[in-house]
Give the backbone structure.
Amino acid sequence: MFSSIRECILGAMRPFLRPGIVASCDEILVEPPKDKTFGDLYTNVAMMFAKRLRVAPKVLAEAVCKALSKNENVSEVSIAGAGFINFRLHNKAWQSVIAEIIGSGNYYSYSNIFNDAPINLEFVSANPTGPLHTGHARNAVFGSVVANLLERVGYKVTREFYINDQGNQIKFLARSMYLRYRETLGDTISEDDFTSDMYCGEYIKDLAKGLVEEHGDKYLNKDESEWLPFFCRYSIDKLMKNVKRDLALLGVVMDKYTSEAKLCERNLVSEALEILKKHGDIYEGILPRPKGITDSDEWEERPQTLFRSTKYGDDIDRAIRKADGTWTYFAGDLAYHLDKIQRGFAKMIAILGADHNGYVKRLKSAVNALSGGHANLEVRLYQLVNFLENGKPVRMSKRAGTFITLKEVVERVGKDVTRYMMISRHHDVMIDFDFVKAVEQSMDNPLFYIQYAYARICSVFRYFEAENGKIDKNELMDCDKSMLSDDAELSLIKALVFWKEQIKSAAIAIEPHRVPAYMQNIASLFHALWNKGKINTDLRFIDTANRKCTIARLSILLATKSILEDGFDIIGVTPMSEMR
RNA sequence: GUGCCCGUAGCUCAGCUGGAUAGAGCGUUUCCCUCCGAAGGAAAAGGUCGUUGGUUCGAAUCCAAUCGGGCACGCCA
């Protein structure tokens, strides 16, 4: 329906186009005005295009106005202010969308505007050195909802987790394991044996116990070279198993796990280096001293292999080889992104914590350079979650093992509340997640408000079907809807119509928090309609004396139910047909 | 010293990429159950959109300064 209106507006402007001046439907804004008294919809094209077309806004507005007034869906048009075009649609036009929503199953929000283009969505990618914590929970929820949104606009999404299963960090993990291993077998270990790079969380003890049970004491009193590889592999395997289990608790399932070590075995780092060399993006050099460091003894000039990332918009060039000749972490990321490019992804998105903000430009540079400009990486940073226990901040340190795990959160407040808390705010805003309040306020949580609307709708259907038997979907689709003309009914229908547009814009902007916000809006309009029926019995959904009217009303409810189910599916929350 | 993010009602936050008189929830005040679920609805009060300039028909939104808060900053991963 909207596309036909946009066509109509564009058509009206076409006579004003001059050679070289183009305009497309995508540029045309059509949306409900803030103030409903202006009309159902408005467009600002007259003002938007006035300058480009060198035509007075009024002249454009009049042409658009004339064209719209001839459109079969439009009932009235007017020009206001500096050139706003306000218009209304016939009730019939709005009512017809109910059938469209019901008829689409729960697929009303789907539009294949990106033609099944493959897209790689990397998220979580937690280091396998410990359990997932609350920060990862936000990452996981954010990523999984983005994936659902991208699928609705026609992307073929690969949800991917990058495992940093090599490097010093992993060695320190293995050494920590070995200390606990010895402890389990009777050696006395003090906290001082753990260096600052090591991990002394409780989970290491548990893992070490398991290792003893499975493999006994055969690694005791052996040289590090004999046990280190095994301890690395063992720890990573177990920890990754737990990572997958925890993600499942949140309803998050990955399509692919990529191992850094495996990429390394394939010599992808060298391959990436060769590609960059060909473009002249590799050189031996010395990085400039950062301006913040004034003390010269804190700074030592070192010649290294550098990637000319400044050529691609980065602030400084980046080291890919340490002074001792080994690869930097970034070198591994070059290999990983080359792997993504080789697998055919021209579009990629990575979800990272805000503490990675200094890393974004070099990653984008890497993708740009390695693909010769054919692939693009978008990065979304999410602010960290401030975890509170009854108003008091919980200090978290992964190394010391004093952090709240994802598992713990889900076990205390449930999957749905956790997901809702993590997704209902803009990713650029810090979240204060208070353990105690999240549970206490569960009744005030907007999630329950939405769940309640859904449960009420289910309740009406239960009530109706108990008397009249199972209702036929086709009957609801095909019924006469002309009596659905109350303001409350039309307001709800209009909100449902815009669901598709909302999902599209949330997906393109990569802003999943808009989804629960819009669901809340729909729930609110539904509750209002419900209560209006309590005051004015003519508006009750079920009128036992008038089946025709009842069926029409139920058709709105089914459409609303369908939209809410789609929304729940996007945000990964289970709808409740009854509230306990 | 540099870069990124945030600053909107007493509190927690929206504000759909520059649109009309600034929007919700919680809290406060007043109403609405003989009724498909009141875990709800209707209404009131509450604002110098951190501050100051600039861009234009038009700014919470864009630009420049500035204040306050968060994050990060050569071989850690």
